[in-house]
TrEMBL record:
InterPro entries, per the entry: Cyt_trans-like, Ect1/PCYT2, Rossmann-like_a/b/a_fold
Protein name: ethanolamine-phosphate cytidylyltransferase
Gene3D superfamilies, A to Z: HUPs
Source organism, top-level taxon: Eukaryota
Lineage: Eukaryota, Sar, Stramenopiles, Ochrophyta, Bacillariophyta
PANTHER family associated with the record: ETHANOLAMINE-PHOSPHATE CYTIDYLYLTRANSFERASE (PTHR45780:SF1)
Pathway(s) served: Lipid metabolism; Phospholipid metabolism; phosphatidylethanolamine biosynthesis; phosphatidylethanolamine from ethanolamine: step 2/3
Length: 197
């Protein structure tokens, strides 16, 4: 399987001259350690408190900026729930998305950091009911919302989470956004059209 021999195997073989109960205890400890490694790799909490982190967005043309946001948000807990805003709300927020809601959900779900995708997440205002329904402990969001609405009572997106103290701001990825990608694609297409004529 390509796995290196764990140093404990060597130790256990050295202890083989000892009694069987000692070997049995060492084998049990070894299997617990392997199980712990597996849980850590799969991002499943083992004998720890589950802390669910939530972030939401449109995630159209999911790019490295979104994936960095997911990785940074996961630092606040051990399970990441990502809300993907539906097509109708996304159109009211910015512009109609290029990808459908199902495509955007599938793209986000494929990210390693993401534990669960919540489709048709609310775009305008997280409520107590929504947070309770999904057992959300921390809400991660872009720091631009703090700049836009310094007073949490004025924040139409994350106001409730900020008021109850579970909101955690995260920095944006500089120089990369979905709008930038769309502009670059359009510029590339314009250049191709000029070369064709």
């Amino acid at each position: 399987a390509g796995r290196e021999i764990h140093p404990w195997i060597v130790l256990m073989s050295m202890f083989a001259v000892m009694s069987h109960p000692v070997i049995l205890v060492l084998v049990i400890i070894y299997y617990i350690a392997i199980f712990g490694d597996l849980c850590s790799y799969l991002n499943m909490p083992l004998m720890t408190v589950c802390r669910n982190v939530y972030c939401d967005g449109v995630y159209d043309l999911c790019h490295i900026g979104h994936k960095t946001l997911f990785r940074n948000a996961l630092a606040f807990g051990n399970r990441l729930f990502v809300g993907v805003v539906g097509d109708e709300d996304a159109s009211q927020y910015k512009r109609p998305p290029i990808m459908s809601a199902a495509e955007r959900c599938a793209e986000v779900e494929a990210c390693k950091s993401v534990t669960k995708v919540i489709p048709n997440a609310p775009c305008f205002g997280l409520t107590k009911e929504f947070l309770d329904e999904h057992q959300i402990h921390v809400v991660a969001f872009g720091e631009e919302y703090l700049e836009r609405w310094p007073d949490p009572k004025d924040d139409i997106y994350y106001g409730y989470a900020r008021q109850i103290g579970i909101a955690r701001p995260l920095p944006r990825t500089k120089g990369l956004s979905t709008s930038d990608l769309i502009r670059r694609i359009q510029a590339s297409r314009s250049a191709d059209d000029r070369n064709d004529t």
